[in-house]
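Input sequence (135 aa), recorded before submission:
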Amino acid sequence: MFQNLPTSSNAPPQHHGAGAVLLRRGECTDQVLHLEHGRVMLGLLDQGGLHHQLGVIEGPFWLEASSGLLGLPHAVDAVAETDVSLQPVALSEFRAHVDRLPEPSRSLLADLARAQRQQTEMAISRLAKDADARC
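Predicted structure, token format:
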């Protein structure tokens, strides 16, 4: 659906090495990142690194696009597990592209973004609790 999404002329591809923090939980951004290639771990950072891991994604993949669509801060931290290449897309361009979709597609995309966000928040709340609290 977003293969032909225009990227900002001021936004060249970004390249990061393993261990680079790509997204920080709770931060808002004015861009959405498309992982062109590489592998990224999603979870919760603490002083020693990624403390709770929620999953691993491999490019091509959108990093936290639902947060951008919903106008919310990032729900998770993202850390490069391998060398990665990212293509930033201005949030305004991303939303304009979505706004040009037919209404049923926009509605479906918004519903999927909300559902993904709820699932992520539920997973985070369960990870953050100790074993007794989870039971």
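Checked by second reader. The mean pLDDT is 87.
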